[in-house]
Here is the input.
Amino acid sequence: MVKIPDFNGVFPPMMTPFTLSGDPDYDAHVRNLDRWNKDELAGYLVLGSNSETPYLNETEKLRLIEVTAERAAPGRLVLAGTGLESTRETVRLTNLAAEKGAQAALVLTPSFYSGQMKDDALVNHFRKVADGAHIPVLIYNVPAYTHLMIPVEAVVRLSDHPNIIGMKDSSGDVPRLATLAGSVPKKFNLIVGTASAWYPALLLGVRAGILALANFAGNACARVQKLVLAGKLDEARDLYLKLVPVNAAVTSIYGVPGLKCAASLLGYEGAHVRSPLLPLPEEFRERMKKLLCTAGLM
Amino acid sequence: MVKIPDFNGVFPPMMTPFTLSGDPDYDAHVRNLDRWNKDELAGYLVLGSNSETPYLNETEKLRLIEVTAERAAPGRLVLAGTGLESTRETVRLTNLAAEKGAQAALVLTPSFYSGQMKDDALVNHFRKVADGAHIPVLIYNVPAYTHLMIPVEAVVRLSDHPNIIGMKDSSGDVPRLATLAGSVPKKFNLIVGTASAWYPALLLGVRAGILALANFAGNACARVQKLVLAGKLDEARDLYLKLVPVNAAVTSIYGVPGLKCAASLLGYEGAHVRSPLLPLPEEFRERMKKLLCTAGLM
Amino acid sequence: MVKIPDFNGVFPPMMTPFTLSGDPDYDAHVRNLDRWNKDELAGYLVLGSNSETPYLNETEKLRLIEVTAERAAPGRLVLAGTGLESTRETVRLTNLAAEKGAQAALVLTPSFYSGQMKDDALVNHFRKVADGAHIPVLIYNVPAYTHLMIPVEAVVRLSDHPNIIGMKDSSGDVPRLATLAGSVPKKFNLIVGTASAWYPALLLGVRAGILALANFAGNACARVQKLVLAGKLDEARDLYLKLVPVNAAVTSIYGVPGLKCAASLLGYEGAHVRSPLLPLPEEFRERMKKLLCTAGLM
Amino acid sequence: MVKIPDFNGVFPPMMTPFTLSGDPDYDAHVRNLDRWNKDELAGYLVLGSNSETPYLNETEKLRLIEVTAERAAPGRLVLAGTGLESTRETVRLTNLAAEKGAQAALVLTPSFYSGQMKDDALVNHFRKVADGAHIPVLIYNVPAYTHLMIPVEAVVRLSDHPNIIGMKDSSGDVPRLATLAGSVPKKFNLIVGTASAWYPALLLGVRAGILALANFAGNACARVQKLVLAGKLDEARDLYLKLVPVNAAVTSIYGVPGLKCAASLLGYEGAHVRSPLLPLPEEFRERMKKLLCTAGLM
Here is the structure.
C-alpha cells in the first residue's frame, strides 16, 4: 500500500468552474490552483461535495484530477472524492483516479437504500473498497447530503483496516467528533469537514480540515490552527467566530452558488454553476460583500 | 413529440438479477420478462428504484432497456428511469434510452443539494429535461430515497408542459395524492408508486400503479383494480389488506433483498443483489414464505 | 365498565373560544354547541388538539367538559382528551372528566421522553390508564404534535384490553390505517383524526372521524360518509377533494388560528386564541373566504 | 428586577427521587442536596428535563423548589424550570416558584403547536413572560424534547430584554453555540445544557453548564472547567473525553432511568422513576458500573 504523511492543515474541497454553456472550465480551474498554491494549504480535494461532483461525468472527473495533480504545488496532497453507490464502481473509479494522480480517495458512505445501509453493509462496503483500492482510503460522512450518519461503532471497526487511514466528518456534530476522537487509534486521521466546527475540532486534537471556506479563505482557516497551536486561544476563537457566519452563508444557506459568489468576490474564479443549481440572485452579491467585509476577508 | 396512450394498469419496477460475481444476468432478466408477459401487466419500468439502478453503469443500463424493449409483449409500454442529478446528463441518458426502445422516461427529482432544490430549481430542471427529451417525461417523486418531496405547487406548474405527461408518486401519502388529483389536469397521468396506497389511490381516480409488488404479484395487484372498477369494493379492500404486509416486507422493511427473496420463492429469478446491499439472512426466507402464504400468493 | 355504542359519524374536536383578555368564553362555547347540535354530528370531543388544551388549566378543562355534557343534544357522545405525560395524572384527570360527564377518554401518547417511549412503556402506560379509568379509553396518535408514532404492534397488543375501545389516528398515513384495519379486532373503533384522510378511511371500513373541519363543516363531512355508504363514490370523492384544501388551511398551514378564522366566517364563534399562539394576520381572512367559497362552504 | 450574579460553574438539573409507590421522596431529595452541597457546584436547577418535570403536578413542583431553597448551601443559586405551553400559566408558575425561593426561572420554549411557533410567537411569549416574572428569566432550548430549535435570530432579539438574562442551550450543537456566542451581548449568560459539549463550550467562552452528569459527577465536570481556565487543555480534554460516553449513557441512550441508576451506584439517591418511564433492566446495572469505572468515577 502507498504510504502518505499524516494529514495536517487545511484543504479546500475545490469548487468546479463551469463555462456559461455548462462545460467544465479547466483553464479557470488552473488559474484557481495557481492562486491556491500561494495560500497556506496542505493539499486539495478534487470531487468533493462542493465540486458539483454529482453533476460531473467520469471523463470530466478524471480530467479534473489530472489537471489538479499536474498543477498542485510540490508536497501538497491531492485527494479525490471517488465514492459511488456501488462497491465495484467505487473501486474502479478510485483506481482510475489513482492513475491520474490522486494520492488518497475520499469515499462517501453509500446511502441510496438507506434502510439497508446498516453497520454491516457499510463496514463491508468500505472494507471491500479499501481492499481493492491502489491508494489509501478515507471514509466520508456528510449527512447533510446523504441523510445517513455512519455510526461511531462502524468507524471504529473500520479504523483497523491497514488501507483505511482516516475519515472526513462533515456532520458538524462536535460531541460526535469527541466520541470519535476518544474511540479510534491515534494514527487514524480524523478530519473535520466544516469550518463551523474548525476551532472546537482543533481543541479536540484534530489536525486537519477539509473546509469549503478554504476555497477563498484558506489563510484565515490556517491562521486559526496556528493560533491554537501557539496557545493563543482567545485570538483563535475570535477569528473563528468571524468566519462562522461566512461559512454558514456559503454552505447551509446559499450552498455552492453562494460559495462561488464569495470566491468570485475575492478574486478566485467561481464562474457558473451547473443546472439544476441556479445562479444566486444578483441582490445576494451585495449581502455577501458585506459579510466578507465584516469577517475581515475583503 | 411522441404520443403514447394514457397509463392504465399495473407496471413492475423490475428488479435486476445479478450473477454471483455481480454482473447483470440478462438471461435471467429475459426469463423474468417471459413470465411477466403472461401476468396482467400494462408494461414495464426498467431502471426504477427497485432495479438497483444507482449500482448500474451506463452500459448496463442501456443493455437492460434494450433487452426489455425487445422482449416485452406487444402493446406493453416500456418506461425507463433516466433521472440523474445533472440536467444535461439526464437529457443525454433519456435520449440514449429512447434509442434503445424506452417509450417514456421516469425522471427522479434531483436531490443531492437538497437545500437548493426549491420549486424554481426543480421546475427549471424538469422543463429543460422535457424540452430536450425525445420521448415523454414523467416526474418521479420518491422521498424515501431522495429525502425530497416535490411540492404540489411545482407539479402543477409542470403539468402544463406538453412533454411532461404525468408523475409517479411513491410517497405513500394519500392526502397528498388527493391534493394532486384535485390540482392537475385530467390528462396528466397520476401514477401511484407503492402498493401500500394502491386501493385508496384507485378510489381517488388514479388508474395506474408502478408497484414493487408487481414483480411477483402483478395479477393480484391487477385484480384489486378490476374489483374496484366492478364496484366490488369489499372484495377489493380485503385483497388489498392481504397484500399490504407483504408489500411492507419487500419495501420498507427488507428492501430490494426482500423483494428478490419473495420473487424467487414464487418462481421469478431474484438472484443476487449487488454490494453494498447484503443478501437477506437465510432465516428470513421462512418468514417470507409464511407471509406469502397468508396473503394467498403461495 | 361503562358500555358505549360503537363510534359512527363525525365529531368535532371543538375549538375553545377565549375572550380578548384570554379567559375561556364559556358562553360562546354554549352558543357554538347550540349550533353544532343542529349539524349532523355524532358527538363532541372536548380538549382535543384543536382545543388549545395544552394552554388550559385543570379548572378550565373540567368546566369545558361540564358545559359540553350539559348542552350536548341527547344521544350525542361526549369525549374528553385527558392524556397527560404521567400515568397517574392521566388516570386522575380521566376520572374527574368522567364525573363531569365525559363518556369516554381520548388519551394522547406520552411523548416527552421520546427516546424511552418504546412499545413496552406505551403499552404499560395505556394498560394502567385503562385499568384505572372509570370510562372507556381511546388511544390518541397525533405525531404532528407528539413527534411519536405509536407502532401498529403496540396498538394490536392494546386492542384486546376490555377498556380500550379504539384509537384516533391523526397521522394522515393511509397505508398505516390500512395496516391497522387489517390487524385489530372488528370491535376496536378505528377513528380517523384528519379530514385529509376521511374519504380513503371510509373506504377502508372506518366509520368515524374526529375532524377539525367539523368545527364548521360538519354537514359536508357527514355527507361524504353518506355518499360513500350509498355507493355514490364519484360524488363522495368530488366533495372530499373540495374539502381537502380547506382542511390543509385550518390545520397544517395556519393551525388553530386558521381554524378559528374559518369558523368565525361561517357564523361559529372562533373568537381569540391564547398566547403564545398569535392571531392570524388580517390579510389572511380574505384568502380564507375565497377558499371557503371555492369549496362551496360559503 | 432582582439582580443575580453571572452564571459561572456547574449546576445539576436535579433528578427527582420517587418512592416505590410513585410519590416524590422529599427526604431522599434532601439527602441528595446534603451531598451535592459538598460537590463543587454553583447552584441547582429544580424542575429541569431530568427532573421528570412533566410528570409532576403543581403542588409537587412547588414543594421541590421550597425544599431545595431551604437546603441549598449559602451562595448557591436556585433555578427553577417553570416553562409551560401557555404564556399566562408560565408567568403564574414562575411567580409561585419565586415565592418558594427560586432565584431565576428557566423557561422552556413552548412547542406543542410547533407549526405556529415561529420567531414572532416565541419572541412574544418570552417577552411577556419576562415582563410578568418577578425573577430573571433564562430561555431554555432543548430540541431533543421539544422538537423545536429556537432560531439564533429570535434569541438575539430577546437578549436585550432587561429581565432575560441568558439561555440554556441543550442542543449539543457547538457551531450553533459559536454563532450565539458571536451574536449576543457579553452580559447574556450562555449556558451549555449537555456535558457532551462542555469542553468545547468552555473554549468558546461559555462559563456555566447545567449538566445531567453533575447529578453524580459534579466534581469531574467542575474540574474540566478549572483545567481549561488554568490552560491545561490536554488534561481537560482527556477528562472530558472520559466523561462523554458516560454522559451518552445517562442521557440519549438510557435517559432518566440511566441517570438514576448511575447516581445510585455512586451513592446518591436515584430511587424509582415515575410511569410511563420504566425502570432500567437489571443487566444494565453492570454495564453502567463498568462505564463509571472506565471513566474513573467509581
Q: What stands out?
A: The mean pLDDT of chain B is 97.
